[in-house]
Amino acid sequence: MSSPSIEPASAAFSGFNAPLASRALVVLIHDEVTKVGFQRALIGLSGGIDSAVVAFLAAQALGPRNTFCVMMPYRTSTPASVRDAEAVIQTLGVEGLKIDISPMVDAYLETSPGTDRIRSGNVMARVRMMVLFDQSAAHQALVLGTSNKTELLVGYGTLFGDMASAVAPIGDLYKTEVRSLAKHLGVPSSILEKPPTADLWEGQSDEAELGLTYDELDRILVEVVDKRIPLDEMSERGFDPSQVERVMNMIRSTQFKRRSPIIPKISTRSVNHDFLYKRDWGK
Amino acid sequence: MKFQIALAQIKPLLGDIKKNLEIHLDFIHRAADQGADLVVFPELSLTGYYLEDLAPDVALEPGRSAVLDTIKGVTDQRRIDVVCGFVEVAPDYRFFNSAGYLSGGEIVHIHRKVYLPTYGMFDEGRFLAAGDVIRAFDNRFGRMGLLICEDLWHPSTLYLMAHDDAQVLLAVSAGPGRGLRREEKFGSMYAWEAITRSAAQAYMLYVAYVNRTGTEDGVIFSGGSELINPFGQGLVKARELDEDLCIGEIDMLEIRRARTLYPLLRDERLDLTLRELKRIYRKRYQLD
Q1: What is the pLDDT of residue B210?
Q2: pLDDT tens for each residue of A107-123
Q3: Does A9-258 carry CATH code 3.40.50.620?
Q4: Fewer beta carbons below 10 Å: N end or C end of chain B?
Q5: Under an 8 A CB cutoff, do B13 and A282 touch?
């Protein structure tokens, strides 16, 4: 544990303006969905807080009728996850769809015996991605991602799995801020209160896997990422150097997840190097 | 002299000049219908902001641009002056982030953005050339200064405009909203309010601040355009985070009143400023 002189993340983020964040994100979701010529958005709803927040924002931005929530349980998923996801669908009155991914996942896993739980978890995340993008085409609905800033920075996500989306509305909000936004939006309390989990295997816990609580992570991240505090000053500020080092290693070792694939520079004008146009080109 | 100024807080499309021209014409006609004499659009209003490699593709040659000719035509037909933003290509093929003042079928003045932000979320200096002139200009209402976004964050530009006798400062921007901690609104909007108010109050002139809205690749332009009087008080303010058209009145007598009460410009020691600047200049560049 770090020294008691550091305020908990909930206090460090106490000035976070959830109503304004919500307003800005509603504007952004509406803008991005309509810019590409869609009316609807599609969200993979896990029963956790991140996807619930994105569903609430999308329902405000586009209306409940234009918000599709897809539940994609695997046979080992906690029943409580589906119940919580159903509560979100019911509260918002959005369109809900349940697709059991067990047959798809198992069909692959049978061809590859001895797959450990990390690999199996990644397969599940990528099957969910496949389902979401297919449903996106079926419903003409833009896939909204549910990654938050904490996960993105420490690379706690499956590349081309849950990290895949067209727009990631809460990608610049730390977990602590997502919690604050969830309260503001009225996300059901059963979702607010449960411990965060990717629910890829029984008893999985984000914080146990990461080795730090979100509270600890967010306090460190906001210092080194947002405030650009030099690492050697972190211990003066009361942070445990080994924890800071651990977080920095997570950030560095997962940078590849936050970037496009490397393309060798051969020609005079190359994708990813000097062919520079925004995604919103012409929109 | 009194006149009505419209703040056209639009949401331009990135790189689609044709559609942006339609938006301009719509706002110009609406402003004219509501009695505006001058309508001000934000920075790069005809092109969108994050142009990157699109900059040369959307660049206009002011003397030979059908788009600007169309707007010039409307200024004549509707007797309304227009300030709009675009990429200007110079005869030597430098590309500038420019804003033009159009009136009576003519381009009266063009300002080329001097300070191109090239840090953090901004990358203008990579794609655009920097202007090197800060100068007020005359139009049918009086004398005005036209500055673009980052220009205003350099107080020297305001000082120069004020002492070049600008009575109205037209400040156009594409300001992204950012910073949500311990704030009632985006932190960046507090900064704009501070800069525009202090400019108006320090130099006893009107400031017409026009910021864009809409989003580009996740960046949310925050709007909040505002007309500020020579006492530093807000007169009309546009909505945040949405398109808006709001109209306020500029009364040139207010400038006289402010400058009579606070003769700060009269008392300014240009000779002293210049002398000290010369000394600092020689020191900075090690000329002695």
Answers
A1: 98
A2: 999 999 999 999 999 99
A3: yes
A4: C
A5: yes
pLDDT at residue B154 tops 80: yes
Domain residue ranges in chain A: 9-258
Is a pLDDT exceeding 50 seen at residue A4?
Answer: no
Spatial distance between the Cα atoms of A81 and B78, rounded to a whole number of angstroms: 62
Q: How far is CA A15 from CA A201, A219, A223, B183, B186, in A?
A: 36, 14, 16, 7, 12
Interface touch B184/A13, C-beta < 8 Å: no
B182 confidence band (pLDDT: 50, 70, 90) = low
| Residues linked to residue B87 through DSSP beta bridges, in sequence order | B97
How many structural domains are present in chain B?
Answer: 1
B266–chain A Cβ distance below 8 A for any pair: no
Please name the residues between 47 and 86 in chain A that touch chain B, using a CB distance below 8 Å: none
Predicted local distance difference test score (pLDDT) of residue A6 = 67
Tell whether B216 is within 8 A of chain A (Cβ). yes
Q: What's the whole-number mean pLDDT along residues B144-170?
A: 98
**Residue B76 and residue B94: Cα distance in Å, rounded?**
30
Q: Give the length of chain A.
A: 283
- What's the CA gap between B160 and B154, in Å, rounded? 11
Average pLDDT taken over every residue of chain A: 94
Q: Is A174 on the interface with B (CB under 8 A)?
A: no
Q: Report the chain B residue with the minimal C-alpha distance to residue A171.
A: B218
Q: Is B177 on the interface with A (CB under 8 A)?
A: yes
What percent of chain A is predicted at pLDDT more than 70? 98
C-alpha distances (whole Å) from A198 to each of A73, A178, A205, B5, B195 are 12, 16, 7, 55, 46
Could you tell me the CATH number of the domain that includes residue B80? 3.60.110.10
Structural domain span for residue B107:
2-284
